[in-house]
Amino acid sequence: MPEKDWSDYRGILIVVEQRNGIAKKVSWQLLGEGRRLADKLNTHLSALVIGSNVSALAKEAIYRGADQVYLCDSEELKDYRTRPYSKVCLTVIGQYKPEIVLMGATYTGRDLAGAIATHLPTGLTADCTQLDVDEQRLLLASRPAFSEKMLATILCKQFKPQMATARSGVFLALPLDPTRDGDIIPIASQMKEDEIVTRVLDFLEQNDYVSLEDQEIIVAGGRGLGGPEAFALLQNLADALGGVVGASRAAVDAGWITHDHQVGQTGSTVRPKLYFAIGISGAVQHVVGMQNADMIVAINRDPNAPIFKVAHLGIVGDLFTLVPALCTAIKAQKDGQESVGIAL
Predict the structure, then answer these.
(1) What angle do helix axes 107-119 and 82-96 make, rounded to 10 degrees?
(2) Cα 47 off chain centre by
């Protein structure tokens, strides 16, 4: 069977995910990475914005690196539903023929990407943590494999576009540049409301769900805590700092805290401004999920713990003494008192 000519497929397309007019951070992070890949391929970077009253996001996509934006703005697209969204994506892909399509590895992104890849059909690599391109314009999509013991790089050589979803917190978003200019191309909605078989009746917010990817301060604990009770100490520190509690896989597997708190290859990949690793040994599966934090503070009784190799500040000591002392010192500073010493 002769190999199909895909030479008319050029450019990179980022599908921007939004809810209520607010874009997911992973979309801007993918635009930043897409800019790098597009420059490497000497091609253009496009974004696709779908929703209702989302024209502001189209402009922001240009400010964050896109050369052009396809905008499908229609009332029936206010809430995400697989079929109307996938038909818009398939229309844009069929008409403009991008060689690479990228989406966030969110619940929505995974659903939408799978539907599109099935219809085209083409290959899809999910949950990527590294992206690159080679001299043959092939997307090198890497993701953890074999129980996270290996990193597999997957190529789609026979079909276009090459598709991948990527985790939040892995790539760096470009800063807003309001001087950037680009084209905004309107795209018509592909389905009328009476043609869509699903209805969104309401959204029930899960108030206790922790979205680690959006946090600037995370206080994470591991097996060194010795049990679930110690997470109360970490919660006190997180509350004092205005952050949230995270955890290693060991703590989650032990049943001390729920999976939505987990940081690492099988949990969330985070990029906070401040990350506390308390009682966490520093296994590679955890480190790959937090190593891009701006500041990492590690507390561990073992001076040889691997976590100290990635920490910007390491404290060897008893967490049950240090964490309450840190809380006291932070409270004193907030109250305008003189600095409080911490006895190690």
Answers:
(1) 50
(2) 17
Q: What is the rounded CA–CA span in Å between residue 58 and residue 309?
A: 41
Q: Give the whole-angstrom CA distance, residue 73 versus residue 49.
A: 8
Secondary structure of residue 278 in the 3-state scheme: strand
Terminal-to-terminal C-alpha distance of the chain = 71
Contact between residue 297 and residue 308 where contact means Cβ atoms under 8 Å apart = no
- SS3 string, 285-334, reads HHHCCCCCCCEEEEEECCCCCHHHHCCCEEEECCHHHHHHHHHHHHHHHH
User: Tens digit of pLDDT for each residue in 7-53?
Assistant: 999 999 999 999 999 999 999 999 999 999 999 999 999 999 999 99
- What is the largest distance, in Å, between two alpha-carbon atoms of the chain? 78
The residue with tokens 């943590």 is: 129
Tokens for 2, please give them: 């002769």
Asked if residues 25 and 168 have their Cβ atoms less than 8 Å apart, the reply is yes
The whole-model pTM stands at 0.81
Cα–Cα distance measured from residue 261 to residue 220, given in angstroms and rounded to the nearest whole number:
8
d(CA 114, CA 136): 25
Backbone φ and ψ for 53, nearest 5 degrees, come out as: 60, 50
Task: For the chain, give the number of residues.
Answer: 344
> DSSP letters of 119-150?
HTT--EEEEESEEEE-TT--EEEEEEETTTTE
Antiparallel, parallel or unpaired: β 130-133 and 183-186:
unpaired
Summarize pLDDT for 90-142 with one digit per residue, the tens: 999 999 999 999 999 999 999 999 999 999 989 999 999 999 999 999 999 99
Looking only at the bridges linking them, the beta strands covering 100-104 and 162-166 are parallel
In angstroms, the Cα distances linking 270 to 31, 94, 138, 276 are 17, 34, 27, 12
H or E, element range at 118 = helix 107-119
